[in-house]
Amino acid sequence: MIASIRGPVLAAGAGWVVVGVGGLGMRVEVPSGRVSQAVPGDEIDLCTSLVVREDSLTLFGFVTQAELEVFGHLIGVSGVGPRSALGVLSALAPAEVARAVAAEDEKPFRKVSGIGPKTAKLIVVSLAGKLSELGLDEAGGAAPAAAEDPALAAAEAVRDGLVGLGWGESDAWQAVQDARDAGAPADSAGLLRAALALLQAARGGARR
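Above: the chain's sequence. Below: its structure in token form.
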């Protein structure tokens, strides 16, 4: 099993990077909008999980051991495959996953593309008691979110703004993610304009 990978970034895209290792280029699937922002020439060090299927070998990579552990727990939930688990970690940090599970709150998971209400509830039930070390203090309460990713906070604010404008929550979040992947400005105003343009373009195409 490939437990980690380190080397220069040879190429990167939305949700993937190619890492140079011993003259080879190894493609690694990564959380969208985070690691995938790396540019060729950057040195990268990832914790990895090799998922073996009958017709494929896919390497998934994460910046922290906590992300890797959450990924492992998520793919153990019935109905959650590696891609869906990666989607969760693209939208939520490990501590946020842990806090949602501890609070029995499935709403954060329902915001992830491909995760429906039943699967979101199943994630909360299945992971109960398994993630306490990732986002809770010793007394069992939610840890403060002082280290929350500013870019993620801006994305969530834009999503909420789009919902307030009448867009569906899942469509709004997907547009925000697509805009981020396309290189939209990280500030709320720029990200809102980019996401709104994607939504309006999609609506215009659907009417034709």
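The CA atoms of residues 70 and 94 lie 6 Å apart.
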